[in-house]
Design a protein that fits this description.
It contains nine helices and 14 strands. The chain is 30% helix and 24% strand. Helix 8 packs across helix 9 (222-235). With 260 residues, it is α/β, with parallel strands linked by helices. It has one domain: Metallo-beta-lactamase, Chain A, CATH 3.60.15.10.
């Protein structure tokens, strides 16, 4: 199973997962043209996408979902509440390509299972993606963690974890207070510190690939996110590079390919 973060950040999100028998996107939060071009840039063929899975209806996760479904004639999966919320945004999608995801879906040799997270949207989810004995977990856009999230992402081989903001930067930054309160609240986004604490609870094998994502452009920067998480992991006696592989994703370009 291969994973590449095409884009991850407050300006747009799209994750690429591929096996020998299936290719899926998690979210499509940029223009269809930009997503397709980035897939070509990583040496892959957009026409081989088999399905799109949506975490929630915010524009940085669904901007290109409708055009990608129409252009490539692929099914788009989301829970009922998310479909109702995003339908006016993404435009018409063929009836046969509207897939209501209740518990799990199977695409080729992939099994995709959603789990609930905490965000100010209709019914936000993270995803576990399984292939044989390998597991990829994606958790972004959650204002808090809980036992459901922790238990859902345990024993993963690759984790994409939101490390959205530094709390002090939010507090002293230019955002108006209602927006600051939203970002910092339980239905907002995960801070660097919360990301580090979550990761320290779920890595157990010592060789996981952990990718930090969905960084705020205004309230974070990659070096700060990385060092904050790294320090928390080391405080919990978790070795990093060597040890777990801790790396960044990017808002404006693809990560490297990771294979498990």
């Amino acid at each position: 199973m291969k994973f590449c973060s095409l884009y991850s950040g407050s300006s747009g999100n799209c994750q690429y997962i591929k096996t020998d028998n299936a290719t899926i996107l998690i979210d499509a939060g940029l223009s269809g043209k930009k997503i397709q071009q980035e897939i070509v840039n990583i040496g892959e063929d957009p026409k081989k996408i088999d399905a799109i899975f949506i975490t929630h209806e915010h524009i940085d996760h669904v901007q290109g979902a409708g055009i990608m479904s129409r252009r490539l004639n692929v099914p788009t999966y989301a829970n009922r509440e998310t479909w109702e919320a995003m339908s006016p945004v993404i435009g018409d999608v063929k009836t046969e390509n509207i897939k209501i995801l209740d518990d799990c879906a199977e695409i080729g040799d992939l099994t995709i299972i959603p789990f609930d997270i905490s965000h100010d949207s209709a019914h936000p989810v993270g995803y576990n993606v399984f292939c044989k004995n390998k597991k990829i977990s994606l958790v972004t856009d959650t204002g808090c963690t809980n036992n459901l999230i922790i238990n859902s992402i345990m024993d993963s081989d690759i984790l994409l974890i939101e490390s959205n903001h530094d709390e002090d930067m939010v507090l002293i930054g230019p955002y108006p207070w209602p927006l600051k309160r939203r970002v910092l609240g339980e239905y907002g986004h995960m801070s660097n510190d919360t990301a580090g604490e979550l990761i320290s609870k779920v890595v157990s094998k010592g060789n996981e690939i952990v990718l930090l994502g969905h960084l705020s452009k205004e309230n974070n920067f990659p070096q700060l996110a990385y060092k904050t998480v790294e320090n928390i992991l080391k405080e919990n006696s978790i070795e990093v590079n060597p040890g777990i592989c801790l790396e960044m994703t990017y808002r404006d370009r693809a990560s490297k390919f990771y294979e498990i």
